[in-house]
Design brief:
By secondary structure, the protein is mostly beta strands. About 0% of the residues lie in helices and about 35% in strands. The protein is globular, with a radius of gyration of 18 Å. The model has no long low-confidence stretch (mean pLDDT about 90).
C-alpha cells in the first residue's frame, strides 16, 4: 500500500450492513479492504461499530453504524442514517473516541463535542435523550487535552490535570454509585468519584464495556 493509506480488517461498514449481512463471505480476504478516503490519513480512531479518520489536510470523516438501522447519530454528521462508506463530519477534530453507540471528539482548541446514543448519559448534558444526531458541545469543564472512554461512558483529561468522567455507572465503571444513581449525566472529577485517588497523578485512563482502568504516575 501507499503511505498513509488506511485498510480495514473485519466487518464494519465498507458495504457491510449489520441488518442485512447477506451475502456474507466465508473468505477472510473479503473483510480486508482499503478504506476509500479522499486523501492520506494522519490519524484513525476505530470503535465498536464505527470509525473516525483525520486527513493530513485537516478534514475528518466517519463511517459505520450501530447494531440497528437507522443508527443513533454517532457519525458526527448530523444524521441518523447508516453510512457504510466514509462521510464528512460536521467538525474538524484533533482526536475522537467511538463508543458503542456514541462518539466524542476533541478539537485542537480543547472543546469536546458529543453525539449519538445518550440513554446512559453519554452526551454529558444532564439528559438521557435516546438519539442525538446533531453534535453538541460539552460545557462546564475546562479545555480538554485527551479523550477516552468505554462502551457507554467517557473520560477527558482537563488542562487542570483532572480527569472528568460521565455516562453509564451501572457496573461502577466511574466509581462507587451515589445511592441508586446508575448514570453520571454530567462530567465529574475522577477525584470526586474515587476519593481514594485524590492527589494521585493519573497518567492514562481508558475504558471497556463495563469497566475503566487507570495508570498512576507511580505505576
Amino acid at each position: 500500500p501507499n503511505t498513509l493509506e488506511v485498510y480495514q480488517l473485519g466487518a464494519c461498514g465498507l458495504g457491510f450492513d449489520h441488518d442485512n449481512p447477506e451475502p456474507a463471505s466465508s473468505s477472510a480476504s473479503a473483510y480486508k479492504q482499503k478504506v476509500p478516503l479522499p486523501g492520506p490519513a494522519s490519524a484513525v480512531f476505530p470503535g465498536y461499530y464505527h470509525n473516525f479518520f483525520k486527513l493530513t489536510g485537516g478534514r475528518c470523516f466517519a463511517y459505520g453504524c450501530g447494531r440497528q438501522a437507522p443508527n443513533d447519530g454517532q457519525l458526527m454528521n448530523g444524521s441518523d442514517a447508516e453510512d457504510t462508506f466514509p462521510v464528512p463530519t460536521k467538525l474538524r477534530f484533533a482526536e475522537a473516541f467511538a463508543g458503542g453507540h456514541h462518539s466524542i471528539c476533541r478539537t485542537a482548541s480543547g472543546e469536546v463535542w458529543t453525539c449519538g446514543a445518550g440513554w446512559q448519559g453519554q452526551m454529558g448534558n444532564g439528559g438521557l435523550q435516546y438519539k442525538n444526531p446533531e453534535p453538541q458541545r460539552l460545557v462546564g469543564i475546562p479545555r480538554i487535552r485527551k479523550v477516552a472512554g468505554g462502551y457507554y461512558h467517557n473520560a477527558g483529561l482537563g488542562e487542570d490535570g483532572e480527569w472528568y468522567l460521565w455516562g453509564c455507572n451501572e457496573q461502577e465503571q466511574l466509581g462507587p454509585k451515589l445511592g441508586d444513581r446508575a448514570q453520571e449525566k454530567e462530567p465529574r472529577k475522577l477525584s470526586e468519584l474515587m476519593p481514594s485517588l485524590k492527589g494521585a497523578t493519573v497518567r492514562s485512563l481508558d475504558g471497556g464495556y463495563g469497566h475503566t482502568v487507570a495508570l498512576l504516575q507511580d505505576g
